Amino acid sequence: MTDIEVFVGTLGALGPDGTPSGIFKHRISLPIELGPNGLAGDIQADRKAHGGPEKALCHFPAQHYGRLAAQFPALRNALAPGSLGENLSCSGWDETTVHIGDVFALGTCRLQVSQPRSPCWKIDHKLGVADVARHIAEQALMGWYYRVLEGGTITPEARLELIARNADPVSLARLWQAHRAHRPRAEELRAIAQTPGLAPIWRKKLLERQSWLEKLLGRGGGGG
In this structure, what is the dihedral angle of CA atoms 210, 216, 222, 224, given to the nearest 10 degrees? Predict the structure, then answer.
């Protein structure tokens, strides 16, 4: 079991045009209510890209901040849990040890890993430094989202504990590698797309790319 920090946020202005964003989070004192769309009081501006049942909670591993600070030393004081807009942060879990469909207990609540987080321009604008999001994507430090299987109240004594995993698990790192590959194997995309618990939007994305690759190879395109 792992101690965890919890963060929520309201809207703030981001970038030169003042785009509304919910990336600005602050640590909260427990207890707090958790429902199917996330934590009480947590707000997202762009509901097409953030929030909703398939992205109810964003988790970013606390140990990644040390790696980011080593790559971007000017940001050392700015890089701390919560600063990349996550709702949950702890040490001990990362993209190599967390798998699509994993079910975690957080106190009496039940969370299921649904998809990786796709880092975007908002991270760079919040931190005021270019290429942080690109580095996160290249190094597979993206974090992940949960759907809420059972809501409730997260209390101060709540701990994050893995309670269920698929029989043929697919790690977030494996999914991300296939997603980022220039020419992944169509069979690998199909296998990952069939993983129980994967968010529908990612299943659709992987199957569409699989279909495209198979058509390309059918026309004589090379593998690799």
Answer: -20
